[in-house]
Amino acid sequence: MSSDISNSGHTPEGGSAKPKAPPLDKPKFWNDPKKRSLLFQVILLSALGFVFYSIIDNTLTNLEQRGITTGFDFLTREAGFGIAMSLVDYTEASSYGMTFLVGLLNTILIAAMGIIAATILGFLLGVARLSDNWLISKASAIYIETFRNIPLLLQIFFWYYAVLRTLPHPRQSMEFFGSFLNNRGLIVPAPIAEDGFGLVMIGFLAAIVGSWFISRWSKKRQELTGQQFPVLWTCLGLIVGVPLVLFLLSGMPLGLDHPELKGFNFKGGITVIPELIALWFALSIYTAAFIAETVRAGILAVSHGQTEAATALGMSKAKTLRLIVIPQALRVVIPPLTSQYLNLTKNSSLATAIGYPDLVNVFAGTTLNQTGQAIEVIAMTMAVYLTLSLLTSFFMNWYNARIQLTER
């Protein structure tokens, strides 16, 4: 009876039994996409590891054959050369580590000055190119098309050799407001802090913090009530007014060291070397042309219906631009603007062409030639530019995330 049931293919309940599917064979190793991709990655990593090992081993062997020692001990040795401009105390008796610091600070200085000036000028030009005024629009277009199509190095040479180096000698300096301009730079009075000036600085910092709180409060107030608060003028009043009042109440604790012509040069004051001025002008003017086009593209990306709605509500063109167009355009402008900031920082390395004492000129140039520590010096220089670029990208990405529209 049981053999009949098993042979007939029917279950005891009268249903038909489904035949079992034959077991699937596992795919071969070379036919499995996951295993195959893993194998290729292992081979690629092994090849890259071998290449890097070969380069490092070959470099160390060559250095040993030439008697060149590696390491960073050279940073403590005396440099023995002067630097035309330094933001910290530096003499020829300072160490090579100090030359690195001087070059780093000078690089950060020119990058920060260039970013600020290029941003302001670029935004003004970008808005001006979309102006209804024919003259302003065409003048902006001519500026942009001219300066962004001339190589940056040529612009640096122009400002340095054709403009600043043709100025009169110190004895024939151009004088204005107690300052002097000649072919050795701009000499301005140096401020000297006296007793009580620390209170003014504390007031200035407190005004900045207060302005931040006022800005946050006004934003929440507008979201709840719809009423606007004059944040700009209030913050400007705090930042300028509070330190000014404290400055006057403290008896104006700030003196000036006026420059004086002694012999063939000026003594006293602060000298802004022509290399810094030429590099700043060239970087700012060149980068501003690209930023202007980025700003123009961001403004054109804003729907025309936004401006029509603002006009229908009776808003002026200035308010429409400031409150409606620019905030929306920033969401388009920020990503390419970040690239321009990175380019400006890296382009500052062209300073070595005119002798501005930046990191490349002072450290990767003079220090490398005197010490012969090429690997360490180049590695430190590359690490600085990489770090500056990553910090800039991090800040701009953070700001871009803050101004993005979010669903609530």
Report a brief summary of the structure.
The chain has 408 residues and is of the alpha+beta class. Among the domains are: 96-174 and 272-403, Orthogonal Bundle (MetI-like fold); 190-257, no CATH class. 63% of the residues lie in helices and 7% in strands.
Cα-atom Rg, whole angstroms?
Answer: 33 Å
Q: Determine and state the CATH class of one domain.
A: Mainly Alpha
Q: Globular, elongated, flat, extended or rod-shaped: what is the shape?
A: globular
Distance between the termini: 72 Å
Helix vs. strand class:
alpha+beta
| Oligomeric state, counting identical vs distinct chains | single chain
Mean pLDDT over the full residue set:
86
CATH architectural category of one domain: Orthogonal Bundle
Strand adjacency order, main sheet: 1-2-3-8
Work out the strand percent.
5-15%
**Number of helices in the DSSP assignment:** 12
> For the report, how would you describe the main beta sheet?
4 strands, antiparallel
The name CATH uses for the topology of one domain is: MetI-like fold
CATH superfamily of one domain: MetI-like
Helix content: 55-70%
Low-confidence segments, ≥5 residues, pLDDT <50?
Answer: 1-9
* Sequence of secondary-structure elements: HHHHHEEEEHHEEEEHHHHH
